[in-house]
Amino acid sequence: MKPARIPDILTSPHHWEQLPWGEYYREALNQQLRPWLGKMFGFHLLKIGNLSAEIDTEACAISHQVNVALQGESLQVNADPLHLPFAAKSVDACLLAHTLPWCPDPHRLLREVDRVLIDDGWIVLSSFNPISLLGLGKTIPFLRKRVPYNSRMFTPMRQFDWLALLNFEVMYRRSFQVLPWHRQGGKMLSTHLPALGCMHVIVARKRTLPLTLNPMKSRKAKNQIRSAVGATRQYSEAVKAQPHPVDNPHPHEQD
Predict the structure, then answer these.
(1) What is the pLDDT of residues 24-74, one digit of tens each?
(2) For residues 176 and 92, what is the distance between their CA atoms, to the nearest angstrom?
């Protein structure tokens, strides 16, 4: 397995039109995300990357949506995604539409997204599936340096492991668009062989595990320990207070 972090600087396309059949990819991704965007609520949505900025997010109830990328058009914030200029736990949802494939350090990018997301915040990832017809193009020498074959294609299981390490719960995952040159991606193949889809999408939520015990359970446990210790101390004091038979020379005088 190749390392996730590489020293090379990758230049991502600024528009979906720069990818062969890019419009088909964007339409298919919009269709996959539409039901889930309606479930996201909050105040701030970050669309990280130039391709994310062109995704239709009108179905999302989050009104303040910010496009973030290092360079490109239709951006509100020009910044490196590896150094997001936002406070910790200040963002409700992050959309990374094909941002990981052109990122030199995906681990760092996901940690940065985890930093700015609030508890129970949403993250949406889309990428190319290496186990697909598109992934076969990377094995052809004269195609490796062309878009999108020059991108990094991570398996879905590898992305699940990255999210699990950051305590993200996967809510939805799907591979689609089996035939990249077809607008509908091949309905029959996408229905019966979705694992061979050229694109993959993951919708997950950030879960924060408590590091302390439940206050009620902790208080109950303390009370139980105190009562046991108190009972032992009271018993010991009662035993000491009782007179020893040797100390009373006339036991019958008490009757």
Answers:
(1) 999 999 999 999 999 999 999 999 999 999 999 999 999 999 999 998 888
(2) 27
